[in-house]
Amino acid sequence: MKKICIHNGMIIDGNGEILLDSAIIIEDGKIKIIDHQDVCNHYFDRMINAKGLTILPGFINAHAHTGFKYVNNVHCKGFQEEYLLACINEGITTIRDEGMFTGDTLEDVVIAKRLIERNNNYPRIVTTGKFFTAPKGYGGQAPIEVETIDEVDAKIEELLSLGIDMVKTVLEDGLDPSTHGLPKLSDDLLKVICNKAHEKGVKVSAHVTQSHNLKRLVDAGIDDAAHMVYDDLSDELINEMVHKNIFVIPTLTVSKMISDKYGAPVFESTKKNVMRFVDAGGNIALGDDFIEEESPWYRLGMPKLELQLLKEAGLTNMQIIIAATRNGAIVCGLDKEIGTIESGKRADLLLIEGNPLENIEYIYNVRMVIKDGCIIVEVIK
Ligand SMILES: [Zn+2]
Predict the structure, then answer these.
(1) Which stretches of the chain score pLDDT less than 50?
(2) 250 C-alpha to center of ligand 1: Å?
(3) How far is the CA of 65 from the centre of ligand 1 (A)?
(4) Helices (H) and strands (E) in the chain, counts
(5) Which of 14, 167, 225, 373 is positioned for an S-S bond with 325, CB 3.0–4.6 A?
(6) For the chain, which domains are there?
């Protein structure tokens, strides 16, 4: 593998720091940060002069669904290749797939994941596989329905032994009249799901859109809420989540789409919740709940609308970048490996033209995307 040096650029490390006098060495797929003055003491296969460029950790979409593709109303198994390629081309080096709603089995999900992993030109995939839910509860066509502690134990063992990365559960009364009043998991089973997953060293993400359900999930011990709730989030619950370090993936794109399409006023309330949560010290990660391309809300590649809506909610550009990098890695359970530019981490990098702290849209001026130390995209100018 080639030894690469990137120098002369501005590094935004993902932890909120800006490094101006450092260079990055990439060796064996890993990052090493050195003082800029020491560059001449090393040999490299390639020197990249990043003058005028900003170097960021590869972005992470922490809430997407890669397995959705309908052609002539028939669901295609596997994943959307055009989505994965558009993502990597625009600097998304990791995607957390938040589960299949389709009839696919866990084995199908694992086969798709392995196919994705075999090709370094696709983003890295972290998948929750399927939803743990009550019998006939929310979670798509074929969720993991559990009724007893033994079933939870057995299913988590099975899921992890197959190669699924983490657990997803749900507490949802129904998003619309057709699903309203769905059965839900008990507090006891939710706790067992969280405890068992944590015992196995994996995280638990939860689909939730209402704060009374969020409260129960927080008590059960989830690691992140896969959406920001649509109703008003109380200060008490915000403080409890901050205290327990429970992350939120706001998916403002979903709230915006629901407001635009159906006139439900959920976007404004969600947006307010996000800013109150962040102001109280809460951590959020970037994710738009991509399912299928649906203009103008969803597009293939970088979730541009989500970035714009986080900005509109009041986040600073640095807060948005941290959400898209370090925090994304944390909710994937991969923060020891990716998400920040630090010595020893995997070299997943995004090089863009301009300073994204001045204008977040500069993120779209992609000049280079590096994954695991390999240059996947290079725009010659
Ligand atoms: Zn989702």
Answers:
(1) none
(2) 11
(3) 6
(4) 11, 21
(5) 14
(6) 4-56+340-378 (2.30.40.10), 62-332 (3.20.20.140)
